[in-house]
Amino acid sequence: MSHSKAATIFNKDENKVNWHDKALWFVRHKRDKSVHTVKGWEELRNLGHGIKAHTLSNLDNYLIQFEENAKKNGVQVHWAVDGEEHNKIVHQILKAHQAKKVVKSKSMLTEECHLNPYLEADGIEVIDSDLGERIVQLAKEPPSHIVLPAIHKTKEEVDALFQEHLGTKPCNGDPQYLTGEARKHLREKFIQADAAITGVNFAIADTGGIVVCTNEGNADMGAHLAPVHIACMGVEKLIPKQTHLGVFLRLLARSATGQHITTYSSHFKKPLKGSEMHIVIVDNGRTEQLSRPDFRASLHCIRCGACMNTCPIYRRSGGHSYDATIPGPIGSILSPGKDLKKHSSLPFASTLCGSCSDVCPVKIDIHSQLYKWRQLITKETPQPIIKKTSMKMMGNLFSKPLQFEKVGKVARWSLRNLPKGVINSKPNVWGKERDLPLGPTESFDEWYKKRKKNE
Amino acid sequence: MKVGLFIPCYINQLYPQVGKATIELLERLQVEVIYPSGQTCCGQPMANSGYEYESVGTCNNFVENFKGFDYIVTPSGSCAYHVKKHYDIIPQTDAVTKVRNTIYELCDFLVNVLEVKNVGARFPYKVGIHKSCHGLRGLRLGSCSEKVTEPYSHIGTLLKEVLGTEIIELSRKDECCGFGGTFAVTEEAISVKMGKDRIQDHLNNGAEVITATDTSCLMHLEGLVTRNKQPLKIRHIAEILNSVVD
What we know:
The structure holds two protein chains of two kinds. By secondary structure, chain A is of the alpha/beta class. Chain A is built from 22 helices and ten strands.
């Protein structure tokens, strides 16, 4: 389904749209308040951008360095070319430990690789331990936001969901009661877990360590309790040095939620005594994106979600309308690189207002990349004949001034003289909820010529 | 100083009053303005829809019409931005480079080239400024809420000096109106919802008039205001700045 179709469905319930818009705008506003207190915020963004650009330009060397250092620390490093291989590797590690119960902290990469259904097919229980992710997991839905996976759900909906799955009492969506119950439920799962999977926010080449940022401490709970820790990361998560965290940790939480720093910035370097630590490094289309000069900067993304919170379209269409692992503006420049045809409507789900690019902590030129994807999509995927022809006609019309004036005259006459019912009839989508201006008798061109004559 | 006036295609055909206000205002400020009669459009409607290659003829026509001027002034941030940002699809001849470097949105031209703030206008209404995105985040005609910079706004600078005008603060200072070119039609539901929300913000804060640097945003907002019979007038900034006391 195209984005616009899904968005139209989402917009049938205007109150829900208003609620969704306000919830996300609140987060964007918190972000503003928080970043405006940081002197040199724009310089931090420049640094973030620069470090990522440098890393991506030297990715091969940094990956090798990271692997060497991680191995020195006693970590087992695996390489996966795509999602399938990633899933197989994780599965094999779990099988080797006869792990049947797994807890997983937030990882958009494992979403992207569809790890959960892969493991579940072999009877392995995978529990998403981030509260928002657990909510959408219970609802059998994908996350609608990368930082706030269940932002599309009201607390009343969560209440109903918990009653059904966790046996809670009805509480009119009391957040404190619901989180308390979720905590009990998740603690049990942490204690029972045979293995813990986490994502990776930053992988540090010069130490071989990784950093996972959470607000719930769920990554720590999983990794410290279970005998096996598997951390899954995309190749672009790399930063050269530990000191660079001073830039990224400051950028990340402020951009994501307006916090100064995430509640937990957990550094994992080597396995606990008697347990194992694995890192799976995944490509899955990233190096292909890296090879596209116009789009490589999309790999700078540190997954803060600020572009979603700020996007006036995302706020009013919901994350699911994008039908992609990463929704919103950043998803709309990443997804076409994976499947141009499937995601061909996404770069058009934007007014190119540019707010995403200005809010981005690592200065990805998101709206410029949306524009560039549009140019490719019209050439490389089938387009509606009507769009194609009308664009060709328009291009011709504007190349020939005299013709333009003639057509303009007819259009103005029609707008002035045709009944509204005809003007706003079905083929005119504009007219469904908006009036068109009344056609003036005289164009500016005609007025100017007349004025010239009378001078 | 020889100034070429670019009147965007839809202003030419549908909102000639904006073009008239622009030329009268500039002439009142002693600027010699010429309107080259072979002009049509900047090419943006095709390009933003993904058909940049269909806009080449239009771009060439634009350059042909405007290459002979010291400055090109247009009452549209969006079109000026398009010429500046996207005219790399045609060969970068001296004429093309010159056109790209000398095109100015009207307020930008007034504040930064003519260096005027008070244009002697009177407009006794409560006015909300809708900060059209391409002008704001593309041409940087003002500071945007996302970035940590000193606040400024060219349109605000000019409007502040207009006699009788009270500038209304909006709850969301610079949210998009949802026009977006063909987006207005291809993403109709969201476009309309964004427009409605933008209008509501103005109404909630007591605006009587919405103004902007771009008629495209205003056409979309006006379409909604008219359909829903809301108590708001829509005026392009050129029309306000050209409201002189007789």
